[in-house]
Amino acid sequence: MPALLSIDPMSSYFILMLFSYSILPAAVIACFRYSKVPADNRLFFLIVWVALFNEILSDIFAVTFGSSAVNGNIYVLVEAILYCLLFYRWQVQRRRKYVFWSLIGLLLVAWISDNLILHTVVQTNSLFRIVYSFILVFLALDQINQLITGERENLLKNARFLVSVGVVIFFTYKAIIELLFWLLPFSKGFQFSIYILMDCVNLLVNLIFALAALWIPTKQKFILPS
Amino acid sequence: MDTNETKIYLAILIAAGILGVFLVFFVATMIRHHRRNRALYLEKLQAEIRTLENERKRIAADLHDDLGPLLSAVKMLIGNVDTTADEDRSTLDKANLHIDTILGQLHVISNNLMPQALIRKGLIVAVEELASERSDKGAMQIGFSVEKDVVVDPEQGIHLYRIIGEVIHNAEKHAQASRMDIKLQASGEKLLLSLKDNGKGFDSRNSEIAQRGLGLKNVVSRVETLKGSLYLDSGPEKGTLYTIEIPLKQSL
Amino acid sequence: MTQTAPITILLADDHEIYLDGLQSMLSKQPGLEVRGTASNGQQLIGLAKKQKPDIILTDILMPEMDGIEATRILSRDYPAINIIALSVFNEDNLIVDMLEAGAKGYLVKNAHKSEILEAIHTVHQNQPYYCRSTTTRLARLIARSKFTPESLIQVASFSDKEKEIIKLICEEKTSKEIAKTLYMGIRTVEGYRLKILEKMNVKSVAGIVVYAVKNGLYKVE
Hints:
By secondary structure, chain A is mainly α. Helix content of chain A is 76%, strand content 0%.
């Protein structure tokens, strides 16, 4: 039996709390560096803050309404659009507007059909989460490939690279898990255990994001579009 | 959780672990290859530029030290011809005029290839000369200020000189600037070169840059060769500021 | 005509054909005598020791020892010898270096015969000579350099009007422009110009600029 499952509910809840607020370091760093970085990178700080805001909101809603499904469903839509915009802005080469808009369109269609037509917004819906996880992983992989062919500085200190790696890791797991939940019915206890696993990944990614927030260059280094 | 679910959970844990290992390996090997590739690229670029500069130096020296003096010698010989016939006189005068033109062009060509001042006196004198020459000839006034006791390594000097030349050219040709200020200073272990013009400026994201093409590309590769970084601050109607930061190499 | 002693000359250049041309041109001139030629700085110094010429015309860029180094040594050891630098191109820095090393004047190599002769005679009278192709920029550079021949430091007094015109000349203004700014006729300006040249005992605009800057009549920013 994995160790995590044998922890008593109270302390595991506490660990979960801690894990979910691991976005805090990145959010704090973002506050200090916001005014110094170029506009393209501020979007990333915005994403971090929105994530933190949602964590707080989820806790409030969980206490008052007993469910954070509504804000969670809205949050994933906001997050998806922000990430799309971020990767679009980070496009080194020619930006293609129609790709961006069709992605946004796709996301909106998926969200509406998942939350308004097929299901209701008050339950946690998987379909949209699967779709946007896939899209974000693709976008991040594309970004990474651009960087390894075009970038000539150290990748490990490159905020764009770190964020992309974080997105790939987090949303790969998220896609797998959401897909699993969608296809197979599991008990509540099982789902909870899986979420603990997800929170471990979340912790790792949030630490990477903190590094990225720290290393986002204050000045836009000039890269020639090829 | 029933036993069946526990089994599945374990399977998921294992799968997640394997996926994690793959991801870590993927990223690690990517960074390693990228780093190696970068080093190779830089080496190649350096070799290319060094060959180019040596070649330029050689051709400039040939023009400047051999062809130029020979031509003036020819002119001298022609000048020694004493003739009273008006027709011959005017032919000789024409020949002399042509030789003067050729000499002038020779000087311009050899100076473009490799300025004598740069080789003999180093970057600072060469840029002073360039700035005053361009200010005299062109529509753009160029100011050049150097922090005291900045010493530039000769090889770095050549690169920086080319960068400055390229940026001046851009500002004149594309930005229609009327004023440029060049500043060279050392801060800590770094050499800081900043060039600011009051021209049209451009959106650094715009495809306009691509059209400016070769010029900026050359600047970028020179900066890379110097292991430095280039920052561009520009916007429509607010001019352009180029900041170049390179590690200071103490010349021996 | 009385037979005065000819001006003795040494030539140095690493290009033989230029040397030959110059030598044959100069030796045809009355009152000049070419005593020998050298193909580098080292040879030139050796020759100068033996011949003690009045004038040396030397190239700047030469193998073994360049003209700058040779000039430095010669003007230290034999200050009586007046040296004229020969430059292939109008190269500001080389020329300034030569003047700082002790040369009294300079010429571009494609200068006309008459100018070469003028330079020799000017320098022989201990006056600095600036090549006719001198730009104002070069003149300013020379003015700022350490080049200070004695003949430059005898300040004649200038009227206010003259001072004003000197300033404008230093700013590269033509007679026409000066006339416009000062509300004078061009002829008047030309007259002033000649007077200034005479007072300064110089022959060209470059001479005016160098004189003016050296004596504080014009300040370079």
